[in-house]
Amino acid sequence: MIVAHRGASYEAPENTMEAFRLAWEQGADAIEGDFHLTKDRQIVCIHDRNTERVSNTNIVVSTSTLSELRALDVSLLHGEAPHGGAFKGVVIPTIEEVFSTIPQQKSIYIEIKCGTEIIAPLLEAMMKTGLKSEQVLVISFHSDVLEELKTQAPQYKTSLLRQFRMNESGASEPSLEVVLETLARIKADGLSSDIAIPETVVKAIKAHGYEWHVWTVDDLETAMHIQARGVTSITTNRPGYMRSATCRAE
């Protein structure tokens, strides 16, 4: 599966309707978006806890209302050359708006960036949208969020996000034991990792029946290597390129 990281974010402002629509046009199997809860308990699609990186105005999402956030233009990262200022007046979408773009048989990876306070409004939004449970994967670095979501709505798949590195003694952090214990405890369906994940961890999680997802891959050589290792999905900023490149390579 080719998953569009924050939409087709290489070519359009990340986490926006423009990026998600472009991802579908480019043949993505799924989109991935980041979600926070606002002061007035609305779920909005933005990566950071504040708007500084994507807007000329810096406000904190959790202490702002939806209307305050929607007043901002979040095309800052894609408002200049080489895009020729094509993106202007781009707003932060709500999760309901993002859901509305999803075609039948396509999916969304919902990355929760805040805490468990988002779960109740998230479940309400998912129930209203008409999406089937198999079209949704909830991902997060916060194991407590995934654990609570599974407790309240076990029909939805979850995947734990983890980055890997080697410590000074040459051992992997987090360790395989910690990863497996966490996945079992929170009843996750899979592990989402960066490309630095050791092969021993890949083999072990697959042997235990978990899905394995990888982010963020934008070059063909890495994608083919990851694909050969039996990955479930590859998240990329360039879904159109990755779709066509992998098809040609096969």
For CATH, the homologous superfamily of the domain at 2-33 and 108-249 is named as: Phosphatidylinositol (PI) phosphodiesterase
What percentage of the residues does DSSP assign to strands (E)? Answer: 15-25%
Number of helices: 9
Query: For the record, what CATH class of the domain at 2-33 and 108-249 applies?
Result: Alpha Beta
Order of helices and strands: EHEEHHEHEHEEEHEHEHEH
CATH topology of the domain at 2-33 and 108-249: TIM Barrel
* Overall strand count: 11
Strand adjacency order, main sheet: 1-2-4-5-6-9-10-11
Helix content: 25-40%
Radius of gyration: 18 Å
Describe this structure in words.
By secondary structure, the chain is an alpha/beta fold. The protein is 32% helix and 19% strand. The protein has 9 helices and 11 strands. It has an 8-stranded parallel barrel, surrounded by 5 helices. Strands 7-8 form a two-stranded antiparallel ribbon. Helix 8 links the parallel strand 10 (211-214) and strand 11 (233-236). The protein is globular.
Summarize this, please?
With 250 residues, the chain is α/β, with parallel strands linked by helices.
Topology:
Blueprint: E1 2-5, H1 17-25, E2 30-37, E3 43-45, H2 66-70, H3 95-100, E4 107-112, H4 119-129, E5 136-140, H5 143-152, E6 157-162, E7 165-166, E8 172-173, H6 176-186, E9 190-193, H7 199-207, E10 211-214, H8 220-228, E11 233-236, H9 239-249
Parallel strand pairs: 1-2, 1-11, 2-4, 4-5, 5-6, 6-9, 9-10, 10-11
Antiparallel strand pairs: 2-3, 7-8
